[in-house]
Design a protein that fits this description.
- The complex is a heterodimer of chains A (105) and B (142).
- By secondary structure, chain A is mainly alpha-helical.
- Chain A has one domain.
- Chain A starts with a helix and ends with a helix.
- Chain B is mostly helical and 142 residues long.
- Chain B has four helices and no strands.
- In chain B, helix 1 packs antiparallel against helix 2, helix 1 packs antiparallel against helix 3 and helix 2 packs antiparallel against helix 4.
- The two termini of chain B are 21 Å apart.
- The chains are: A mainly alpha (105), B mainly alpha (142).
- Chains A and B meet through helix 2, helix 3 and helix 4 of A and helix 3 and helix 4 of B.
């Protein structure tokens, strides 16, 4: 499950989080769009186990934070391995994911 | 622009941020001053790391100017927080540009600096009540 889809599922289960988290969800959508445009082909994403989003809000937010942390680390690794042309975009995505952790408190 | 000149450009942005934080802190409460001090320390550490990297690569690190012209007057808490956000956005832009020009350890330094500036900008936006507190592409040209 991609990060945007994980936020969709979480916001569906916890509508009270919509105001706080929909900008972050939208950012993840923009990241996918930008990567598809830059690479010129659809992304192939692995499908990690879907965490439960139905628990208490604090638990759902903690699951999002864990996913953002892994996503940040994955993006850093991808940035370091990337061709020069894509490094700024992928680095920006890593930085966005890092900044999302400030919102998930 | 090659790797060394990209690092030098980012170092100049770090000099400017360190100068700017000297202005920011004076207009904040105790908690804000603590945050500003921590952010300034992070920029000093980054500046020193870049200087060492440039020196090791036989490039001359750019010196700080005695003073910098700030983008607007800082007269109170609101304008101080706006400046803090602007300082972090400015360094984020310099580090993002450096990503395309660097490889290996230099690129790692650049991406870590970009993440730190983006994160600190978000902290300041939250302090200032700016919504949303995140941007989709930190460091991207406006």
């Amino acid at each position: 499950m991609g990060l945007a889809a994980l936020y969709d599922a979480t916001l569906a289960a916890h509508p009270d989080l919509t105001a706080a988290l929909s900008p972050v969800r939208d950012a993840h959508r923009q990241h996918v769009d930008a990567l598809v445009r830059a690479i010129g082909s659809p992304l192939t994403t692995s499908a990690p186990a879907v965490p439960s989003v139905a628990g208490p809000p604090a638990q759902a937010v903690a699951a999002l934070a864990a996913a953002e942390r892994k996503g940040r680390d994955d993006a850093v690794a991808a940035c370091l391995a990337s061709v020069a042309r894509l490094a700024p975009l992928v680095g920006s995505i890593a930085a966005a994911r890092a900044s999302h952790l400030e919102v998930l408190v | 622009m090659n790797g060394a000149s990209a690092l030098a450009a980012a170092m100049m942005a770090e000099h400017e941020a360190i100068f700017g934080y000297g202005v920011v802190g004076a207009h904040l409460d105790r908690a804000g001053q603590d945050t500003a001090r921590a952010a300034e320390a992070a920029h000093r550490a980054r500046r020193d790391a870049v200087a060492m990297r440039l020196t090791t690569g036989s490039s001359k690190p750019p010196a700080a100017q005695p003073a910098y012209t700030l983008p607007f007057n800082v007269t109170n808490r609101d304008s101080a927080l706006r400046l803090a956000i602007a300082l972090e956005e400015h360094t984020a832009q310099a580090w993002r540009r450096a990503l395309a020009e660097t490889t290996g350890d230099d690129r790692r330094l650049a991406v870590e600096a970009l993440m730190e500036s983006a994160t600190q900008a978000t902290r300041w936006r939250r302090t200032a009540g700016v919504q949303p507190s995140t941007v989709p592409f930190p460091g991207a040209p406006a």
